[in-house]
Amino acid sequence: MTNKQQHGKKRQFRRHETHRHRRLQISWRKPRGTHNKMRKKKKGLPAMPNVGYRSPADRRHAHPSGKHEMYVESVKAAHAVSNGVAVRLASGLGERKRQAIREILEEKQDVVVINP
Predict the structure, then answer these.
(1) What is the pTM of this model?
(2) Which of 14, 36, 41, 111 is the most buried (most CB within 10 A)?
(3) Residues paired with residue 87 on neighbouring β-strands, in sequence order
(4) Residues 72-95, buried b or exposed e (16+ Cβ, 10 A)?
(5) Cα gap 1→8, rounded to integer Å
(6) 44 in Cβ contact with 54 (< 8 Å)
(7) What is the pLDDT of residue 76?
(8) How far is CA 2 from CA 8, 25, 63, 67, in A?
(9) Widest Cα–Cα separation across the chain
(10) How many alpha carbons lie under 13 Å from residue 25 in its C-beta half-sphere?
(11) What is the dihedral of CA 30, 31, 37, 42, to 10 degrees?
Protein backbone atom coordinates (compact mmCIF):
# COMPACT_ATOMS: atom_id res chain seq x y z
CA MET A 1 0.00 0.00 0.00
CA THR A 2 1.47 3.36 -1.01
CA ASN A 3 1.76 6.37 1.24
CA LYS A 4 -1.14 8.19 -0.48
CA GLN A 5 -3.43 5.18 -0.16
CA GLN A 6 -2.58 4.83 3.52
CA HIS A 7 -2.99 8.45 4.55
CA GLY A 8 -4.83 10.23 1.73
CA LYS A 9 -4.08 13.72 0.47
CA LYS A 10 -1.83 15.82 2.69
CA ARG A 11 -3.57 18.94 3.99
CA GLN A 12 -2.16 22.32 2.99
CA PHE A 13 -2.11 24.71 5.92
CA ARG A 14 -1.96 28.34 4.83
CA ARG A 15 -0.88 31.40 6.74
CA HIS A 16 -3.72 33.49 8.19
CA GLU A 17 -5.02 36.26 5.87
CA THR A 18 -2.67 35.53 2.96
CA HIS A 19 -5.64 36.09 0.67
CA ARG A 20 -5.85 39.72 1.85
CA HIS A 21 -2.24 40.87 1.54
CA ARG A 22 0.12 40.15 -1.37
CA ARG A 23 3.18 40.76 0.82
CA LEU A 24 2.38 37.69 2.96
CA GLN A 25 3.74 34.34 1.81
CA ILE A 26 1.34 31.38 2.00
CA SER A 27 3.83 29.27 4.00
CA TRP A 28 2.49 28.38 7.45
CA ARG A 29 3.12 30.69 10.40
CA LYS A 30 1.31 30.18 13.68
CA PRO A 31 -1.05 33.05 14.53
CA ARG A 32 0.03 34.55 17.86
CA GLY A 33 -2.24 37.56 18.29
CA THR A 34 -4.24 37.81 21.50
CA HIS A 35 -7.54 38.33 19.66
CA ASN A 36 -6.76 36.25 16.58
CA LYS A 37 -9.83 34.25 15.59
CA MET A 38 -7.88 31.54 13.79
CA ARG A 39 -5.79 30.90 16.91
CA LYS A 40 -8.99 30.73 18.95
CA LYS A 41 -10.33 28.10 16.46
CA LYS A 42 -13.50 29.97 15.55
CA LYS A 43 -15.95 28.20 13.26
CA GLY A 44 -15.53 28.84 9.53
CA LEU A 45 -11.83 29.71 9.71
CA PRO A 46 -9.02 27.53 8.32
CA ALA A 47 -7.67 24.74 10.48
CA MET A 48 -4.28 24.89 12.15
CA PRO A 49 -1.82 21.99 12.09
CA ASN A 50 -1.95 19.67 15.07
CA VAL A 51 -0.98 16.13 16.02
CA GLY A 52 -4.23 14.68 14.60
CA TYR A 53 -3.03 15.33 11.03
CA ARG A 54 0.15 13.27 11.52
CA SER A 55 0.70 10.35 9.15
CA PRO A 56 0.89 6.74 10.42
CA ALA A 57 4.23 5.81 12.02
CA ASP A 58 5.08 3.11 9.49
CA ARG A 59 4.46 5.52 6.58
CA ARG A 60 6.29 8.52 8.02
CA HIS A 61 9.42 9.60 6.09
CA ALA A 62 8.71 7.00 3.39
CA HIS A 63 9.32 7.39 -0.34
CA PRO A 64 6.13 8.05 -2.39
CA SER A 65 6.28 4.38 -3.47
CA GLY A 66 5.54 3.47 0.17
CA LYS A 67 8.98 1.95 0.79
CA HIS A 68 11.59 3.30 3.19
CA GLU A 69 14.71 4.77 1.60
CA MET A 70 18.23 3.52 2.11
CA TYR A 71 21.31 5.42 0.97
CA VAL A 72 24.01 3.24 -0.64
CA GLU A 73 27.53 4.55 -1.27
CA SER A 74 29.57 1.31 -1.45
CA VAL A 75 29.39 -2.34 -2.51
CA LYS A 76 29.57 -3.34 1.17
CA ALA A 77 26.48 -1.24 1.94
CA ALA A 78 24.66 -2.85 -1.01
CA HIS A 79 25.10 -6.30 0.58
CA ALA A 80 23.50 -4.98 3.80
CA VAL A 81 20.31 -3.81 2.03
CA SER A 82 17.22 -5.63 3.27
CA ASN A 83 14.29 -6.66 1.09
CA GLY A 84 11.43 -4.27 0.37
CA VAL A 85 13.27 -0.93 0.46
CA ALA A 86 13.92 1.89 -1.99
CA VAL A 87 17.64 2.44 -2.62
CA ARG A 88 19.21 5.80 -3.47
CA LEU A 89 22.72 5.50 -4.92
CA ALA A 90 25.38 8.05 -3.96
CA SER A 91 26.04 10.70 -6.60
CA GLY A 92 29.82 10.26 -6.44
CA LEU A 93 29.75 6.61 -7.53
CA GLY A 94 31.54 5.75 -10.76
CA GLU A 95 29.94 3.69 -13.51
CA ARG A 96 31.85 0.49 -12.62
CA LYS A 97 30.82 0.51 -8.94
CA ARG A 98 27.29 1.58 -9.86
CA GLN A 99 27.00 -1.45 -12.18
CA ALA A 100 28.34 -3.80 -9.48
CA ILE A 101 25.83 -2.45 -6.95
CA ARG A 102 22.98 -2.81 -9.47
CA GLU A 103 23.87 -6.50 -10.00
CA ILE A 104 23.84 -7.13 -6.23
CA LEU A 105 20.47 -5.39 -5.83
CA GLU A 106 18.89 -7.36 -8.72
CA GLU A 107 19.39 -10.56 -6.69
CA LYS A 108 17.42 -9.09 -3.78
CA GLN A 109 13.63 -9.26 -3.74
CA ASP A 110 11.39 -6.22 -4.01
CA VAL A 111 14.22 -3.62 -4.01
CA VAL A 112 13.70 -0.46 -6.08
CA VAL A 113 16.60 1.76 -7.18
CA ILE A 114 15.35 5.35 -7.21
CA ASN A 115 18.22 6.80 -9.27
CA PRO A 116 19.73 4.02 -11.43
Answers:
(1) 0.63
(2) 111
(3) 70, 113
(4) beeeebbeebeeebbbbbeeebee
(5) 11
(6) no
(7) 95
(8) 10, 31, 9, 8
(9) 63
(10) 4
(11) 10
